[in-house]
Please model this.
Amino acid sequence: MAVVTSHFLLPPLCLPPPSSRTASHYSVSPRRPPIMAASSSSSSLTDPQYGGGRSRFMEFPHVSAPHRDLMVELVSAVEARLDSYLLPCTLPPDVQYYENQSGTAQATLHVRSGHDSSPIDFVLGSWIHCQLPSGGALNITSLSTYLNPSTDAPNFLIELIRSSPTSLVLILDLPPRKDLALHPDYLQTFYEDTKLESRRQLLEKIPESQPYFSSSLYIRCIVSPTAIMTRIETEAGGVERMEEILQSHVGPVAKEVLGIWLDQCAFGEREVGDSEISYLEKRDRLIRSKTIEIDLGSSLPRLFGPETAGRVLEAMRGVFK
Model:
């Protein structure tokens, strides 16, 4: 549930068909502690306030071991670095986990908002499992992080979409929050100096990889020029080849990109003036409203029915505000 803007929880691409730094420098590690001291009520990842919702979210029960391990490692890295900036998840239990009446579709949603004094707006993670009419299953796992208007740094998103054990769509990006044509220094700081393009090219070289183009022009216009949007098909090599690619190629690149975001964006200490804060507030609000309008509002009812979808959408509107 998050897609290509890190603002998209379930985009059209997720629906079933109708019938000069080195990589090691950016490793995902908690080497730079948050400014705020962790409180006893929220710092422990086993705190009762997390409830069963987080545990269920972290299971990622319908995907392969390499896929699950990658998602757990990414979520754990974000929580380790940002935990003292974040409040516990307060979504209702029937939003943290929900399913359709027939039991053919299940999903989790885990959201932690940032403290008022932190640069984090919220962190959102989810997984969706949906049985397909063909007999297979659609599995989507995602993690996205949103910064608030006190900084203009990019957000982070990753989404892995599996329509079969040998098919993967990967979306991995730091979506910009400023017009790159008008702010070349922003392009230089976050996309050129960080060598993000080299990460995209690494995955492009995988023989089974080909570019993925979203059918949504809106999505395609708000990602960064270094966005990784790739489709990997391993029918010839089978499931084993897909798991090898996840473990040896996708995983390392995803962790490097998250490391870049944590170091350069979450802890980049970029402050903006009052006029720019107003612009960022308006931009963020418009993009999130568009998310619900063109994606969630149509896709969730089709997967989970109007009642469940309405409940989840209402909760998401509260988060996105």
Q: What stands out?
A: Residues 166 and 238 are 6 Å apart (CA to CA). The mean pLDDT is 84.
